[in-house]
Amino acid sequence: MSVELKAVSFNIEDEKFAIDINHVDTVIEYQKTTKVPESSDFIEGIVNFRDGVLPVINLRVKFSYPQFEDKDKAKILVVKIGEKKFGLMVDEVKEVMNIKQEQIEESPSVGGTKADYISGIIKTDDSMIFLIDVEKILSKEEKIELEKVIK
After folding, report:
1. What are the chain's domains?
2. Rounded Cα–Cα distance for residues 67 and 64 (Å)
């Protein structure tokens, strides 16, 4: 019996990504964010979410893609690490996928990239999907900065 991973897939530009469903809370429509003074470029801002404030990370900026042409079409994937939640702003959320262990290739170390948040590459019949490790999307320094935004 092969181990299966359930993951939520999403797009940024023409690239496909996926995150383990255990880290996904929900998906919400884009809403205008409130910019946090002196925060990093990739921190889009904060939005009201349930009973609190949700910091939103713009993955286009974080992953060095061109900025959104129309942010209103973006989706926010709400992810959780322990008790902390934050939003990942993406082009669109596609589907929940069942992935077999043998479909996941180890992430190649591409010349000096700092993309250690890519934990593997999922190979499907028609595409390759970057499997993102939510715990590693942010560096220690960025997590500290995000914590300041949350408080």
Report:
1. 4-150 (2.40.50.180)
2. 9
